[in-house]
Amino acid sequence: MSTAPRALITGAARRIGACIARRLHQQGYDLILHYRQSSTDAEQLRDELNRQRADSCICLQADLNDMQAVEQLAQAVRQQGPLSLLVNNASTFYPTPLQQAAQSDWDQLINSNLRGPFFLSSALATLLEASGGSIVNLVDVHAEKGLGGYPIYSIAKAGVKMMTLSLARELAPAVRVNGVSPGAILWPEADAEMDDAARQAILDKVPLQRTGRPEDIAEAVAFLASAGYITGQILAVDGGRSIFS
Q: Name one GO molecular function term (predicted).
């Protein structure tokens, strides 16, 4: 039986989640890769990591919009044994202009970004307490400064920020809870309206004048997972964007 620490990463199949998975695996974690729809990507990543270290990685599917699925995911994780780290990375992102937003948009964005991670954290708290583990939540710079045209997403991520601070108090001293707040890292895949001018307008507000790398977020998550005297903190990884009004 493996004695490696185990981490659950939600939304781990692609993009930043997959990069976080590779970094934590390099640091010796066994992994549970959660995915919603990207089964092929998740399975390919699992196989890649298992080739590097046998039996170190599994996949679990769940729709975090569905409370029953959240509970089933937590139960499946508990069946794997001890858990040292929960990375709440999974997120839904799309525009909801105020006059066009529907209740279904509210439910989709709040549930996937906030409700699912909250109840997953609650369901796994006992495992994390037993291991003296930690939670790292992926927040967003727009938790502080709402993104125009994306009010529901911005509200949800502001909730994730407060969830991080609240759970840090609720779960202390056994479990540390922190957050990483990315800035411009990867451009949204589905945002067809984001042309070069729109992207440059964003970078004009970034002191480092460039996008970050998924590896920057993975490094921050790995740091917070190992920083034994840090809890209740949100680490902005945004090229300095947050110092501007």
A: oxidoreductase activity
